[in-house]
Amino acid sequence: MARQGVSCRAVGAGVMLGMALLLLSFPPLWAASPSAVQSPMPKPPADLPPAPEAKPEIKSEDKADPKPEAKPEAKPEAKPAPAPASAPMSNEEMERLSKAVSERDLKAVEKKLEESRQEQKALQAKAEALAQEIDSLQQELISAAGAAQDTEENLSDLEGRLSGLSEREKTLRNELSSRDTQLLEVLTALERQAMRPPEALLVQPMPAADAIRSAILLRSAVPQLHDMAGTLRGQLQELLALRKQISSQRRDIAREGAKLTKQQTRLNDLLTRKQTLQKSTLEASDAATKRAEDLAASASSMRDLLDRLEVERKRREDEERKRQQEEARRVAALLTSKPAAPKPPEPVVAKADPVKVDPARAEAPKAEPTPPSDPAETPRASEPAAELQTASVVTSPAPAHGKSQKLRSFEELRGQMPLPARGQITSHYGQTDGTGPTQKGLVLKTRPRAQVVAVADGVVAFAGSFRGYGQLLIMEHSGGYHTLLSGMNRIDAVVGQRILAGEPVGVMDDSDGPSLYVELRQDGQPINPLPWLTARKG
Questions:
Q1: Which residue among 3, 142, 322, 409 is buried most deeply as judged by most CB within 10 Å?
Q2: CATH number corresponding to 406-532
Q3: What sign does the dihedral 121-125-131-132 (CA atoms) show?
C-alpha cells in the first residue's frame, strides 16, 4: 500500500510538471516583436521538486494471491503543438497599415466630395439657367405690359376722337335741322311770291310802300339763301366726312381691341409661366402671406400695418441671415473635414488556438494617420469661402428672381416714375371736397380691365384685402419708401416677391371707369407723389 501511495504521488507530480511545461511552451502574445516567438523555453522554477522516477513493482513470491503488476509510470503524452499564432505587427507595419487605411478612407471621402461638387455644379448651372430664364421672362413681362398699356392709351384716344366726332355729327345734324326750318319758311315765301303773276298787281293794287318793301326783302333774301345753301352744303359734306372718320375710328378701335386682347392673353401666359418657374418661392411665400394677412387683421390703421410689416421684414431678414450663416458653416465644415483616424487592426490569432488573451496586453500601439503630402488634396482655409456659393445650391431653393437683378434706388426715380396705369387723374394729393378727409394720394380713372404695373423696383410687402382699401398691394422700396395701390380686381404678385419697375402687378375690374388709388409714403407718412411722376400727355 505504501508503494502504491508513492506511485500515485509520483504520477500527480508528473502531470503537474507536464502541464507547467506545456503552458510555458506557448510564446507570449504580448511580445513586441516576432523574435519573442523564438525565445528559448524557460526553465522550471528551482523550488519545484523533481518528479520521482517510477520504480518497477517487486513481485512477492511467498504470497499466494499475487497482485497485478504495477505498470511503470508513463510520462504524460505531449499534446500536439498548436499552430503557431500570428505574430503581432511591428510599429512600422502598423504605421504602414494605418496609412493605407487612412489614404483609402481619404480617397473615398474625396470621391464623395468630388461627386458632391459635380452635383453642386450641375445644380448651380440649372439655377443659373433658371435665373436667366426668369430675367428674360421679367423683361418680356415688362415689354408686354408696356405694349398693352400703349394699346390701352391708343384705344382711349381713338374712343375719345370717336366721341368727339359723334358729338360734332350730332351738332351738325341739329344745325341742319334748324336751317331746314329756316329754309323751308323762306322758300315757302318765295314760292308764294313767285306764284303771284305781275298782272295781279293791276287787279289788286297794293300800296307803293308795301310793294317796294316786298321787292327789297326778296332782293335781300336771295343772297342769304345762297349763303345758307352754301353753308348747308359744307355742313353736309362735313357730316359725310365725319361719318367716314367715325367708321374708320371704329375699325381702328376694333383692331386695337383685338390686339389688346392678344396682349392680355400673352401677359397671362407669361405670368403663369413665371409662377411655374417660381413655384418653390410661391410655396415658401404662403407662410409669409398668411402672416401678412394676420397682421392686416390686427392692424388698426395703415401706419400700424406698415410698422408691423417693417417688424416682419426685419424678422425675415434675420431668419435668412441665420440660415445663410448655418449653410456657410455646414459647407465650410464639409470642405475642411478630415477622415476619421481608422482603428488599427487587432492581432489575428489562429482559430485553432482557443486560449483567451488579455486585451490590455494584446493592445498594439496606435499609429496617427499621415495627412496627404499633396497640398492640393488638403482644402485651404480660403477654399470654403470660394465654394460657399456652389455648395449652398444643394440645400438652398431656386432664386425667386434672376441673379442679375439689382433693385434700383428709389431716390433716383424722382421725376421719372410712371403712373401705374394709363388714365386720367381725377383727384390729387391734399385735395378735399369740404366734407370728407383730405386726400392722401391720387385717384386715377382707368379703362375697364386696365393693366397695372409697378412704378419702381421693390419687394412685395403686402397683397390682399385691408379694411376700406379693398384689394391692396404694398411694395417696399429702398430708403424707407412704400407705394400703395388699391382698387384692383386682381393682384398678380405675392408677398416677398421682387418686382421690377414696369412689371405687371394687377388688373382693374371691368366696370365702366374704374378708379385706382395711388399713395406714396416715406417712413410711414404720406407724401405728395406728383414730384416723382414723369410728365405724360393728358
A1: 142
A2: 2.70.70.10
A3: positive
Res. 353: pLDDT tops 50? no
**For residues 239 and 172, what is the distance between their CA atoms, to the nearest angstrom?**
7
Number of residues written out for the chain: 538
Torsion angle, alpha carbons of 452, 456, 459, 463, to 10: -30
Percent of the chain residues topping a pLDDT of 90? 12
Q: List, for residues 473-510, the tens digit of each pLDDT value.
A: 999 999 899 999 999 999 998 888 889 999 999 999 98
C-alpha cell at 199: 298782272
Stated as kind and residue range, the H or E segment containing 451 is strand 451-453
Could you give the CA distance from residue 305 to residue 288 in angstroms, rounded to a whole number?
A: 15
Question: Could you report the per-residue pLDDT of 270-284, keeping only the tens digit for each?
Answer: 888 877 776 655 555
Nearest to 441 by CA among 426, 422, 451: 426
The per-residue pLDDT for 382 is 38
Largest CA distance in the chain: 224
- Burial (CB count <10 Å: 0-12, 13-18, 19+), residue 54: middle
Name the 3-class secondary structure at 529: coil
* CA atoms within a 13 Å half-sphere pointing along the CA-CB vector of 89: 17
